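Hi F.,

I've been meaning to write this up properly since the lab meeting, where we talked about keeping a consistent format for the predictions we share between groups. The idea is simple: the sequence comes first, exactly as it goes in, then the structure tokens exactly as they come out, then a line or two of notes. No screenshots and no reformatting. I'm using this chain as the first example so we have something concrete to point to.
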Amino acid sequence: MTMEEKIYKDYVLALKAHDRARTDFLSFVRAELKNAAIDLRKQHLDDAEVLAVLKKQKKRLQDSKESMLSSGRQDLLDAVEKELSLVEAYLPEPLSEEELTALAEKVISDLEASSMKDMGRVMKEVVSRAQGRADAKKVSELVRSRLSSL
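Output, unedited:
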């Protein structure tokens, strides 16, 4: 079962269970998936494309959460945190700090990177091997620190 099918199936289950918050959120995600499919001129998205849409939603929700925290709107913050937990349920488990460090070290040795000039190549390969399970900002900080110490 593809991720798109799983989201649809969960949407139907939420409708049957009269879970308003989950239904609204999954309806919104389904609409975003449909828009992405239209943009890509496809009938259905593959799992990588669905993950990209979900990551975009997570980023949007995290930005909203930060603005809610700064404005002190606890009522809205609770709703955003609930949506954030729903979207995270569909995303793969992120790599731990140790796993990410080991991956970066392996890529640096595999590519024989020796200076900051190689950062682009190393970043591209680490993000590719992490398969969506690592935040690019965190990877960048880690690779930068490793390459600057060489």
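Notes:
The chain has two domains: 3-90, 97-148.
Residues 96 and 102 are 10 Å apart (CA to CA).

If this format works for you, I'll send the rest the same way.

G.
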